[in-house]
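2024-03-11 09:14:02 DEBUG pipeline.ingest accepted 1 chain
2024-03-11 09:14:02 DEBUG pipeline.ingest length=357
2024-03-11 09:14:03 DEBUG pipeline.predict start
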Amino acid sequence: MSSLLPSIATNVVQWQASHGRNHLPWQQTRDPYRVWLSEIMLQQTQVSTVLGYYDRFLQQFPDVASLAAAPEDEVMALWSGLGYYSRARNLHKCAKAVVAEHGGVFPRSAAVLATLSGIGRSTAAAIASFCFAERVAILDANVKRVLTRVLAYGEDLSSSRNEKALWQLAEDLLPTHDLHNAMPRYTQGLMDLGATLCVPRNPSCLVCPLQTQCRAAQHGNPQSYPVKTRKTKRSSQAWWLLVLRDAAGHVCLQRRPSSGGDTGIWAGLFSPPVYASLAEAGASLQSLDLTVVARQDWPAQLHVLTHRDLFLHPVVVDVAGVLPALPPALADWGWHAGAAWPQLGLPAPVRKLLESL
């Protein structure tokens, strides 16, 4: 591989400067707060989706101190619809740690950044590379695809040993000169190649700057890489949502538990109470001692998660009175006016459901 080392970094840096993505808002700064925010939002989320959220977050929280000082519900409400809500909780926790433990200044090294909540090894390296030109490797899904193809690295990445070996190869390929300019461009260039040319299916090898060095392209089998035999199986689950609405239009919402089992879905967010069956939802309704005015069982709505299909069955129940009393044991339930619930942290399908009421 030694013959590849100088040319790969040089080619990626030159290609990124002339053909890569250079227009995104977080690319116009070396402010670690803005770069960190973009990196967290971009985890498993497309750039087109992130752009609007990124702008709204910066308007609400222009720096790490304002984010750290904000109530968690305000952060979750702003994140609502972006998915993978543990990212938002870790984002808030990380901001607090930066303020409390680092004087409001992000650490300059990837090793220290990786100790903060929600920042893994690759994300830490991206921040350190973009903002401080540290010579560290990233290895997100796109970069794994690029590097395993270039190197024809056919070891199974389901094995931690093989992934560790790929990390070492990624570090060997890093630029060695003019790091202040080369490291941000090289890091961004690998991301850009994986996102635009070296895609999972039908990669654009003919216009790739690494075509002549890419062993997979030379062998005509780029789609054989990366190799990962252990795949997560998809599953499906049905939930019944008990949507209670009083005479004034208040809706009853429950704050979901913060962790544990199936509560990992929408953890810490607000939603109508969730049940595993229609019978359980009906039994719960009966136990509330509310006067039911009308009830509608709405058709199921499919909500697609990364590894699970969630079938949501809304049971919409109108009850008599305004803010009728709820049992004291249900302390995490509460009535919310139409002007108030949009400001809560709501999962996207719940927000859509309430808007349709």
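2024-03-11 09:14:41 DEBUG pipeline.report DSSP finds 14 helices and eight strands in the chain.
2024-03-11 09:14:41 DEBUG pipeline.predict end
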